[in-house]
Every structure is written in C-alpha cells, then in structure tokens.
Helix-turn-helix domain-containing protein (Paenibacillus roseus), 81 residues
Amino acid sequence: MTNDELFETVQQAQYGERQAMQKIIEAYYPLIRKQTRTLDPSTSKDFEQTIIEKIVRAVHNYDITSLPDFITFCQANTQPE
C-alpha cells in the first residue's frame, strides 16, 4: 500500500468504513505475525490483539490535517509503555 493509498484508507476508516479499517489491519498483519512468531504460543494471540487494538486507536486518533505521516505517527504511538 502506498502512502497515498494509506492516507485515503485512513480517511475512510475515520469516517466509519469498516472495510477500510480491515484493509489497514491486513496491510500490517504480516508484520504483526512476524513479531509474534518469537513469542510463546499462549501469549502470541494476546500480543497480536493488543497490536491490532493500538492500530485501530492510532487510525481513529490520527489528525489527517497535520504532520507526521501516518506511519511515523503509528511508530511513535505504539512504543511500549
């Protein structure tokens, strides 16, 4: 997904289009799965769900009228607390 496509998809998701949110999650799902492979199977699903929840929150909280771009915003807002 290009940055322009991601921007448009984030806009659509913010307007409540569930398919757009699903498209964003699917775009990042391979990376999420890659990260969970190193975890214990009993915790990997919980970790996966936590990351997906953070992505959903980031999409809804992202101000599309400001900088940084969405990818940078997600990286800054998904760091361990």
